[in-house]
Write a structure and sequence with these properties.
Layout (H helix, E strand, L loop, with lengths): L8 E14 L3 E14 L3 E5 L6 H8 L7 E6 L2 E2 L5 H10 E4 L3 H4 L6 H11 L6 H14 L16 H13 L5 E5 L7 H18 L2 E6 L2 H7 L2 E6 L2 E7 H6 L4 H8 L6 H6 L40 E4 L2 E3 L10
Parallel strand pairs: 3-8, 3-9, 6-7, 7-8
Antiparallel strand pairs: 1-2, 1-4, 4-5, 9-10, 10-12, 11-12
Helix pairs in contact: 4-5, 4-6, 5-6, 6-7
The structure holds iron/sulfur cluster.
The site of iron/sulfur cluster has 14 residues, from loops.
Length: 328
């Protein structure tokens, strides 16, 4: 997203909660009071270790999962209370790229049928000829060709299947792409190709993207802004460059210290923060900061009071008592 563009909010997430019952009296708080905005034409990265709630958060934002509380607005409309007509338009405008292209595409289906399905459902082609041209254009757009349309999915590699998945998502001219760890199931050697393809398409089509990943080095490359989640909470949110040059939250600092650097000298100088303990259970999480048990900066207040997200610098939000002036 270029800085000279006016920031129009595409998706607004307000105090979103998604709880699950865990046993008779317990609650699993997968997403717990999370708020953020995604601007039109930007890529918003959502990161955190597995189990932190990022995928549940993304799926609840898209209305794939019911919310427990809070609100998600897409272009001003409440995602969880859309009319049938609004929902139909929403499912065209907002498309998903799935984590595992082996599971998300029927291996015995023809590539043509997979890509043409959305075009047919939304009546986007005037006739069969136009439909064929649209399918060919989409295949070329993702680095495949017209001949691939006649083949079955099982004939393709993981990277090629993910390209087919991207072509399917783009077939209905969406405005918003939800990419749920789209490269984590792929070979390391082709991950960069898929990331570069998504970046190119995002720019060309001015797509808004919500990009979920557990790997900070991946989101850095693709995101304009990044939100870091820990155990159902958003703990830090800022521009991508800012997050890497000036991380504030102790958890973000620990995550970043684990990102490998290619330069051996720089790597040797880098501070490596070892996180103690494991991620606690999201079932009935304790009061206060959820990172307290693993944080080397933990203070008395951290175990009693949940830190709120605050803007500590322009556009840089952190949920940590270290940055709350009132706590001093
Ligand atoms: Fe650490 Fe306290 Fe900040 Fe939590 S609120 S990250 S425990 S310093």
């Amino acid at each position: 997203m270029s800085n000279d563009k006016e920031c129009t909010v595409d998706m607004e997430v307000c105090h979103l909660k998604k709880y699950y019952k865990a046993g008779r009296h317990d609650l699993l708080k997968a997403v717990d009071d999370v708020s953020f905005q995604i601007y039109k034409g930007e890529t918003f990265g959502l990161v955190g270790e597995s189990g932190c709630g990022k995928t549940t958060c993304g799926k609840t934002c898209l209305g794939i999962l019911e919310k427990t509380d809070g609100k998600v607005l897409y272009q001003g409309k409440d995602v969880h209370s859309m009319t049938k007509k609004e929902r139909f338009a929403f499912t065209k405008n907002v498309q998903m790229i799935f984590q595992d292209p082996y599971a998300s595409l029927n291996p015995h289906q023809k590539v043509y049928d997979i890509i043409a399905e959305g075009i047919q459902i939304h009546k986007l082609a005037k006739n069969r000829e136009e439909e064929q041209k649209m399918v060919t254009d989409l295949l070329e757009m993702v680095g495949l060709n017209a001949e691939h349309a006649t083949r079955n999915v099982h004939e393709f590699s993981g990277g090629q299947r993910q390209r087919i998945g991207i072509a399917r998502a783009l077939s209905v001219n969406p405005e918003f792409l939800f990419c749920d760890e789209p490269i984590s199931a792929l070979d390391v050697s082709i991950q960069a190709q898929i990331v570069n393809l998504l970046m190119k398409l995002q720019k060309e089509k001015n797509l808004t993207m919500l990009f979920i990943a557990h790997d900070l080095s991946v989101v850095k490359h693709i995101s304009d802004r990044i939100g870091v989640m820990y155990l159902g909470k958003m703990v830090e949110l800022t521009e991508s460059g800012k997050l890497y040059s000036d991380p504030k939250h102790p958890y973000t600092k620990a995550l970043l210290s684990a990102v490998p650097i290619a330069d051996p000298d720089a790597s040797a100088k880098k501070e490596h923060i070892m996180l103690k303990g494991d991620v606690p259970s999201p079932v009935n999480p304790p009061e206060g900061c959820r990172f307290a048990g693993r944080c080397d900066k933990c203070m008395e207040i951290c175990r009693k009071v949940t830190p709120e997200m605050r803007e500590v610098e322009d556009g840089h939000f952190v949920a940590c008592h270290l940055y709350n002036k009132e706590d001093d």
